[in-house]
alcohol dehydrogenase (NADP(+))
Amino acid sequence: MTTVAAYAAPAAKAPLERTTIERRAVGEFDVLIDIKYAGICHSDIHQVREGWGEAIFPMVPGHEIAGVVSEVGSGVTKFKVGDRVGVGCMVDSCRTCENCLRGEEQYCLEGNVPTYNGIGKDGEPTYGGYSEKVVVDENFVVRIPDGLSLDVAAPLLCAGITTYSPLRHWNAGPGKKVAIVGLGGLGHMGVKLAHAMGAEVTVLSQSLRKKDDGLKLGADHYYATSDPKTFEELAGTFDLIVSTVSAPMDFGALLSLLKVDGALVNVGAPEEPISLNLFSVIGGRKTLAGSMIGGIAQTQEMLDFCAEHGIGAEIELIRADQINEAYERVLASDVRYRFVIDTATI
């Protein structure tokens, strides 16, 4: 085992603090990664504060990991020392269920093993990317193409794949009108990706405060959801709406913006339950759906797509001792658009 420095929350709602953790010895099919950068996802805050239920402490968050391979096990065939790699939201799955076998490990019927706040197959808690190093099975590691800088690539391992997957599944592309709800860490990636896929892209945000940013990122249109006229003007407009907001929304109002057979897909995960009048979906044969990250193969596909189109996250690089401040700024929507920790400062 290897002792490494990390930032952890010692208890629910407690500030994160510098500590040390143990990483397992490199096994036959394992890859040891020197973490260079780790993104801060809103879900890190949900979990540190137990917003999604009881959690495991101490907790080392972080599932947007970019780094360099420093050691490989004797059976590893996919990576070598020096490779630029990433790790996303999961580090294992059963690998044998129908979902795993078709490359959708995120929907493993036995439950995937999350990168942090989970229990690995060895029975030990998993610790995430706010740390110096991580050991991961090679089958849950992806290659970061040379065309992507590691710092802007790190958020792609969650924010990128979380928006890429539903855009691909619901066939965003030329001739399709796509709306992205919320222009934050996920939303700004959704805009970039949908634009690169060739769709006509609209941002639906609470206000017009970030309109100039949205248009620069690739949106064709930008509307404020706080203006009732938005819902009158855009009624029946969209083939696909991807909601990235982790707060309660008026889903009936959003569904009214879909065409017949349109889909409203949620990738944001509010802590509170929602209520819905089913006539919102019955009228127009509409779909209210959800989507969770993507499989390992699709995550690699996404990274290759981003490299091909010159897409990285818009980031603010911070020191590790700024993590708690960054959490407060995320909650205040004061980030454009992803905090990334320089792990050399841990």
Observations:
- The chain has two domains: 2-158+313-345, 160-290.
- The longest helix spans residues 296-309.
